[in-house]
Amino acid sequence: MIDGLTPAVFERAVESGDAPSLSFLAGAGTYRRALSTFPSLTPVCASSIATGTHPDGHHIPHLVWYDREERRLIEYGSSFGAVVAAGTRRSILDTIFNMNGRHLSPGVTTVFESLHDAGLTTAAVNFTCYRGRTEHRTVLPGVTRTAFGPERFFFYNLFESDETGAPLAVRKRAAGTIDAYAAAVGRWLVTRDGFDFLVFYLSDYDYASHSLGPEGAAAKLGDADRAVGALLEAAGGPDKFLERYDVILCSDHGQTEVHSAAPLESGYADLRLFRGRELRADVAVCASNRAGQVYRLPGCREETRALAERLDGHEAVDVVFFREDELAVARRDRDEVRFGPGDDTFARAWAALANPNAGDVLVSAREGWEFTDLGGRHHAGGGSHGSLCAGDSEVPMLAVGVEAPPASITEIAPAVVARFPVAAGVV
Ligand SMILES: [Zn+2]
Q1: pTM for the whole thing?
Q2: Ligand 1 centroid to 424 CA: how many Å?
Q3: From ligand 1's centre to the CA of 21, what distance in Å?
């Protein structure tokens, strides 16, 4: 999985031969453009990939959200390496432990859990949604909590189930050090044929695309290609690699260019905003990248509809969604469409609204616009994602050895389980 890789960049790189390892895999497989989930943000997408469900199934709503039970904001960080580097303790604990240990619904089964239950060895490198059956201790100083992950579990040097000797330097992120770490671990795993199933996750491409824009980042695809190439070489060459393994290669979401950013909270300036400590507040506004959520808190005198209508005319807002009676409403400026659970056009919006952890109002950003996050930060002048628009939502999907490339990121987990007859029988 190459985070944030757009179909256009992938297709061009494969055709031009600029990415020899990706070109080799594309030549051996079948390809299509596939659909992500909404909001098209990594924690949400990774959970959809690992569980085969949209947010109504896995319950991860966004990068940032309001926990109604604990009455606090959850912030997984714009990038996981960045959270590790920036280092607020609560974000780190939410990102590293709570997303998988508490927030990810116990009602769904991850691909790691399914395959483990069938007696197979699973592995993951840096993958955000890692929940598995094997208990691991972190190397974080002073943290005694453990996490349940795949048997072979590598997560930004914080969890390492095996001594691989791979180095990690989070502070030099722009130089592609996270993926260099992933490549070193991946090489170690493939050399030993140490897994039946591996999620090999490269995050640096998304990081580059946020700062350079989706087209500007194309030059950085060579780094991801080399990381994939390290796996092919570790098997004794590309052909030997494919004798041993089938491959699904994809991204979690796309990216689009953003030229401007605006705070979503500006629509609620006269209400009492929850920012982390307030005992009385009307709304919690959670936005970052190109998706936003508004939570109506107990005691708020305005109905959900009124909270949604406040965003009419907001420069960065494209569509707002909210539930009303048994249906849902999509509102763009003052036009409305009502839809239900069976409506294909709004299937992703419905699934996002049906997540019990989602805001009461969900917002998809206008093309070219981003919402500033809790720290006032944004990627204007670069790239971003999160909305329902095609550029954020379409991903490249390549299948090698697997019958057909999945049409949605939610079809990956079922395709993987079906690939292992022993697991298909168990699940
Ligand atoms: Zn991103």
Answers
A1: 0.95
A2: 33
A3: 23
